[in-house]
């Protein structure tokens, strides 16, 4: 590993959380059907694990509910302005996703919507003009609701073919402009958040695990097929896989705590990336399936595809670390999963434990396991920010957060982990994926909007904007640009 390699610094959004642009030409997608509910005990459950009834309610214009992803933070209308901010920050790269339903409203059309193509033409052209590298997520949670209703989401093998039509168009239209490809955001989210991750509707008895793992299998096959196609087309970019990294610790040195950690880590964290990076199902999955009576339909062709089309790099979202114990203990929230409280860590207002050292640890564990270049594709602090009378946001808590994580990222690189890029999640305020809130802000750019979509949607640079800009500039100077 060339220790002189420097980290590329980036920022990220996701189409459904950022764009809005809920126009006639865009199809209804899964995220458009998620209403905002005031934060109560089951709000997250209700807004994350949707039922058929919730979809029907979302389609009715008289539901009286607010659907925040239909507005996002109005990136669709503020595109030029926002990319100017990315340029002013001096970002090396911008991670964003394509709205599948904006290009293919029902997901089954033979040709894409001209309005959707025109919008993304502007995005790619502006970034190329600014010489900002592109890290493109093909699918970041939002899938056309038509595919959910027709095929049961990714449980239906037909979604592979429809996804490949979407991917083929993207490759043909913009493929030569992308340096980093990510077919699916946090692909292990499908296990914890089946509606967001794999488009499954919650039934009377919750979710059938066979459906969840069959849906994930179809995403694995789709991911491998995109890699195969891109290599046949000789596209310049490299392909990655991505997991939400949970950074597990045993609560005590009790052997049972550590054994439980191994099992949780296998299925919750490594399972998807083992398959996408090594090209085969791991031994522990067979045992898990036997124990849970899960039988998957995996063809020999699927196995061949997975083996021959593994990813070039691996990436993680890192928000928090988690604690495992066989005992009952105090719990706290986390990204996708609830964790036992760690007495050595502080938590955000949303209960996510803050652990920069855990990031360094995780980067080692990921590199040890896969031996491929590593990218942090998401990391950031969701916090309640206050816009002052004179349009400032003094988010020193976010600056402290970023400083502490970036220090550990650089230490990991010095340790010998080939950390290629670090991408700040929510470079601009976006709607929270887990809780549909605006209050939980991540950006270094503030957007004037509240949980119910009220506000000017004007943009304001937070103190962290100036800090990040200065950090990137100094880092480039100290690391030969
Ligand atoms: C990850 C998603 C992102 C982002 C992040 C923060 O799971 O990939 O889309 O939302 O979580 O979570 P939240 O928005 O719930 O605070």
Describe the structure.
The chain is an alpha/beta fold and 481 residues long. It has a single domain (8-478), classed as Glycosidases (TIM Barrel). The chain has 17 helices and 14 strands. It has an eight-stranded parallel beta barrel with strand order 1-2-3-4-5-7-11-12, surrounded by five helices. Helix 16 (396-415) links the parallel strand 11 and strand 12. It is globular, with a radius of gyration of 21 Å. The two termini are 19 Å apart. The site of 6-O-phosphono-beta-D-galactopyranose has 17 residues, from loops.
Assembly state: single chain
Structural class: alpha/beta
* Bound molecule kinds, no repeats: 6-O-phosphono-beta-D-galactopyranose
**What is the rounded distance between the termini?**
19 Å
Number of helices: 17
Range of strand content: 5-15%
Supply Rg. Answer: 21 Å
The CATH level-2 architecture is identified as: Alpha-Beta Barrel
CATH topology: TIM Barrel
Number of domains: 1
As laid out across the biggest beta sheet, the strand order is: 1-2-3-4-5-7-11-12
User: Helical residue percent?
Assistant: 40-55%
Largest sheet: 8 strands, parallel, barrel
Instruction: Kindly state the number of beta strands.
Output: 14
Could you tell me the mean pLDDT?
96
CATH superfamily: Glycosidases
CATH top level label: Alpha Beta
Low-confidence stretches: none
Overall shape: globular
